[in-house]
């Protein structure tokens, strides 16, 4: 057979495969109707294992693993269709996101912190920032009801993810309902009259120090981590020593500091994304992004199968972050951001699949960006 004849034969087989696939998916929908009527779960591990073992033994020599991979995709598609048939009711356990006339918002740091700027971008000038020493304190304030909302930085365009924030997400009960991006204009600030040659130590939040690492190295300055950019500026203002802070220009002005150098970030412009969290699940009218955290079995192909679910559902995966669980193992927790709304049937099917079939799954919220 020549190449044209071979391709013609392949085209014929492709039509047969598509016909068989569609027939199989139709049968799966009938199975879903039966499971729904009889209160049976979609996922049945024994049945899946049976299919995978069977197709492996039926495959031609050397094709067992490939055939299993094909059927794992087929099974995942069929499960999604079943979840979509079974879980078709819209959720009713959320409140619409509304901006109160006055609201107290938990922020890490002190007056002049970038979190305060983020809070005002979301809630306007009528918001009342309540300042806390650590990110954990902000999460705790929201979980305990001390404040209705909290602001947490999660990602910087120069230094990457704020790992402290991600490490805390599994420890507290909260939902994300908004995100906002703040342009960070890092500057080197000192008490008025302090000369550059006098400075050896520079204080700021680890993220700000990382964002300005090239400037610090070039000028031979010693970076010392501090809890927050604004508290670092406050400390410099109160110190008798010739030290400096990296903070925003408005923050430097607030504490009466002199700006020796402005726009010192390694890359300009420099942005930080903040999340707004609440104890209650709230849904903005324009909610179009979902965040979850989950743990995968330490088995071959589990991450691939997870990612394929988003392709099956036609959803754009915007971010995939992993952090060590810190239990002595080398296991990790995954954090995912993807496009969608919980009002969408496909999204509800995916979330049901993940929540019922994973060892650990946490829905973090459905939100929009201000």
Please explain how this structure is put together.
The protein is an alpha/beta fold and 370 residues long. The chain contains twelve helices and 17 strands. It has helices at residues 3-38, 45-58, 64-86, 114-123, 135-144, 163-168, 206-211, 213-218, 229-238, 249-254, 302-313, 345-357; strands at residues 95-96, 103-108, 127-132, 149-156, 160-161, 175-183, 186-190, 201-204, 222-225, 244-248, 258-262, 271-278, 282-283, 289-295, 317-324, 332-339, 360-369. The strands form three sheets. Strands 2, 3, 4, 5, 6, 12, 14, 15, 16 and 17 form a ten-stranded mixed β-sheet that branches. A five-stranded mixed β-sheet has the order 9-8-10-7-11. A hairpin with a 7-residue loop joins strand 15 and strand 16 (332-339). The longest helix is centred in the N-terminal third of the chain and has 36 residues, at 3-38. The termini are far apart.
Layout of secondary structure:
Elements lengths: L2 H36 L6 H14 L5 H23 L8 E2 L6 E6 L5 H10 L3 E6 L2 H10 L4 E8 L3 E2 L1 H6 L6 E9 L2 E5 L10 E4 L1 H6 L1 H6 L3 E4 L3 H10 L5 E5 H6 L3 E5 L8 E8 L3 E2 L5 E7 L6 H12 L3 E8 L7 E8 L5 H13 L2 E10 L1
Parallel strand pairs: 1-13, 2-3, 2-4, 6-17, 8-9, 8-10
Antiparallel strand pairs: 4-5, 4-12, 6-12, 7-10, 7-11, 14-16, 14-17, 15-16
Helix pairs in contact: 1-3, 2-3, 3-11, 3-12
């Amino acid at each position: 057979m020549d190449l044209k004849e071979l391709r013609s034969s392949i085209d014929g087989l492709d039509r047969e495969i598509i016909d068989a696939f569609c027939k199989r998916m139709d049968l799966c929908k009938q199975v879903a109707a039966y499971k729904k009527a009889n209160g049976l779960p979609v996922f049945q591990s024994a049945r899946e294992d049976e299919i995978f073992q069977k197709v492996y033994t039926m495959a031609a020599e050397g094709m067992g693993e490939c055939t299993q991979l094909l059927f794992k995709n087929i099974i995942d598609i069929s499960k999604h269709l079943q979840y979509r048939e079974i879980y078709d009711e819209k959720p009713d356990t959320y409140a619409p996101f509304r901006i109160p006339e006055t609201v107290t918002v938990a922020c890490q740091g002190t007056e002049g912190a970038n979190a305060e700027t983020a809070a005002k971008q979301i809630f306007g000038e009528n918001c009342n920032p309540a300042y806390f020493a650590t990110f954990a304190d902000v999460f705790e304030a929201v979980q305990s009801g001390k404040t209705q909302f909290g602001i947490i930085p999660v990602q910087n365009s120069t230094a990457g993810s704020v790992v402290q924030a991600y490490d805390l997400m599994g420890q507290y009960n909260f939902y994300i309902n908004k995100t906002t991006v703040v342009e960070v204009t890092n500057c080197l600030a000192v008490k008025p009259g302090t000369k550059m040659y006098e400075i050896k130590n520079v204080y700021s939040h680890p993220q700000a120090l990382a964002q300005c690492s090239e400037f610090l190295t070039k000028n031979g300055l010693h970076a010392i981590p501090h809890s927050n950019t604004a508290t670092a500026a406050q400390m410099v203002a109160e110190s008798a020593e010739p030290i400096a802070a990296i903070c925003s220009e408005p923050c430097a002005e607030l504490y009466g500091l002199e700006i020796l150098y402005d726009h010192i970030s390694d890359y300009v412009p420099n942005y930080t994304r903040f999340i707004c969290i609440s104890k209650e699940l709230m849904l903005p009218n324009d909610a179009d992004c979902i965040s979850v955290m989950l743990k995968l079995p330490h088995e071959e192909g589990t991450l691939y199968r997870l990612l394929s679910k988003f392709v099956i559902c036609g959803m754009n995966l915007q971010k995939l972050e992993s952090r060590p669980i810190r239990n002595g193992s080398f296991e990790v927790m995954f954090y995912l951001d993807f496009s969608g709304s919980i009002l969408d049937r496909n999204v509800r099917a995916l979330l049901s699949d993940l929540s019922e079939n994973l060892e650990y799954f946490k829905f973090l919220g459905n939100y929009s960006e201000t």
